[in-house]
Amino acid sequence: MTAERFFCADAARARGDALPGTAPYGLVWVLVEYHAPWPANGYDGLALDPVTKSLLYEAARAVRARILLIRRHGRRPEGAGPPRWAVLRYDGTGAHRQQWGTWERDEDLALAAAALGSPGEPGHPPVVLVCAHGRHDTCCALRGRPAARTLAERWPDLVWECTHVGGDRFAANVLVAPDGVYYGGLDAASAVTVVGQHLADRVHAAHLRGYTDLFPAQQAAVAAVLARFGPAGRHAYTVTGTSRAGQHWLIRLTGPSPGATAYDVEVTAHRAPPHQLTCHGPATSAAMVHEVTAIRVG
Fold this sequence. Notes:
There is one protein chain. With about 300 residues, the chain is of the alpha+beta class. It has a domain of about 210 residues: Glutaredoxin (3-Layer(aba) Sandwich), CATH 3.40.30. The protein is about 25% helix and about 30% strand. A 10-stranded mixed β-sheet has the order 5-4-3-1-2-7-6-8-9-10. It has a 4-stranded antiparallel β-sheet with strand order 11-12-13-16, covered by helices on one side. β11 and β12 form a beta hairpin. α4 crosses α5. It starts with 7 loop residues before the first helix and ends with a strand.
């Protein structure tokens, strides 16, 4: 008898895996448009000029930037011009910064490496990145591509498919950058609702994995306050205090204006039972879960 095929996103939804507190930390992203098949390990697996490839890799590592391959959903139209690269930089003031360019030869990507040393320009609309990296994880393709298609139909200039962003079991995953917001557990319909609300500067707790400038316990605290008191802008809440005793955290949030109310959020971290967390990795792993146990209005 053939064993039933395992899908990590189906298993995570059946278990009720918690989304809040699962966004990888990050403030800078490098995007490289690449329309040939993506290697399972993304940029690392590209057969590029080794000098240029290493130059961009080392420049990204120096500022803890993540390199993602991107492409538009569907076939690339003829006459679309040379592929693009971008450096996206989170700014805590909300004036998120971007720099874009094009590349035709491998050596042109040295410009992206150089851009990592400059602040970039504010005022660009955010980029909506949908993980559709099927060679890395089956669920990213099965769930990511339908979401990418629907989003691209609605916002064709903002939406790109991208390589692995982390958290395969939460597919479809969407990263809005350089805003630094991760959403997960999406489908075609919910993706349009969530992204539409995000673009209107209304972040909802539903489907929110976290803000990438915060650590997991802080992400969980923000999500819990949004769930209780309603959606708010990306920068409506500020973490003004964080203390820890073992696996117990106390996070103080302030906001939103004009009242600037203070909230003390208690968070407990624990390991979930071991499970297979990706489609292609049969080994089990115990994910860390951050559970909010109390919210007090200060």
